[in-house]
Amino acid sequence: MEYGPAGWTRKLDQGQNGRGERGNEVADGKRTNEHFCGKFVGEEDQVFIGSRGRSKMFSLFYGFWKYMFSKTEFHVLILGIDKAGKTTLLEKLKSIYSNLEGLPPDRIVPTVGLNIGRIEASNTKLVFWDLGGQPGLRSIWEKYYEEAHAVVYVIDATCPSRFEDSKSALEKVLRHEDLQGAPLLILANKQDVADSVSAEELARYLDLKKLDERVYMFEAVSAYDGMGIKESVEWLVAVMERSKRTETLRARAGPASA
Ligand SMILES: Nc1nc2c(ncn2[C@@H]2O[C@H](COP(=O)(O)OP(=O)(O)OP(=O)(O)O)[C@@H](O)[C@H]2O)c(=O)[nH]1
Ligand SMILES: [Mg+2]
Questions:
Q1: Ligand nearest to the CA of 82
Q2: Shared domain check, 86 and 208
Q3: Is the whole-model pTM more than 0.85?
Q4: Phi, psi of 216 (to 5 degrees)
Q5: Does ligand 1 come within 6 angstroms of the Cβ of 138?
Q6: Could you tell me the distance, in angstroms and rounded to a whole number, from the CA of residue 128 to the centre of ligand 1?
Q7: Bridge partners of 218?
Q8: Are residues 28 and 76 in the same domain?
Q9: Contact yes or no for 244/110 (Cβ under 8 A)
């Protein structure tokens, strides 16, 4: 059941007969045994409209209402090479922002498919897609690019010997046309470890040339103790709300699906 404006309660766009006719529902959510088709349904202030007209009007009004007042939903991809800490980060996000207790690090296994995490922050809904980073799984990443509002790229800041691998995987992500204009948050993860490199050092090391025309930020985080995670989410929401890419995705989806 979807809840529409002014207490209307109904299944969106689906009549009980499967043809968009709503049979015996009335506007205040109560039900009557009379049918709408071509006649009044009792109360004087109810307007006489055929079932198809009502259905269409309701869809339009409901779509508009949803467009104006429902919380925006953003899709955020979490990418990075294997063992960077993506899934640990996702579980930490869930613990911080939802009532769900995230999995503890010792119960997290390497990702083969996709992990999804939904949170609400700054009056928006965020859906995180966490994908496996092993070399054989990286070709799957691009299947999710088209629908992503932003990318979080996680790097293990304690492991300089893998920075080169991280850098080339990230450059490939940035070259892909389906991710054009997507804001990018690069996380120097595992800051709880004493010899991890800082976000500034990591930025110097990566020396990414393709970042110029993109909104991006480097942030030092720890998926273990939560350092930097709230700042990261706040930044993501702020940039996605005003990014051109969000406008494009919204226009593509249309008002009814906002
Ligand atoms: N010290 C420390 N270890 C971390 C942190 N985040 C993740 N780890 C550890 O890093 C290892 C890899 O973590 P995962 O979250 O499985 O990494 P992943 O990026 O999801 O890896 P794939 O699913 O294979 O792509 C695990 O042993 C984690 O406990 C962190 O912030 N600090
Ligand atoms: Mg994982």
A1: 1
A2: yes
A3: no
A4: -150, 165
A5: no
A6: 16
A7: 186
A8: no
A9: no
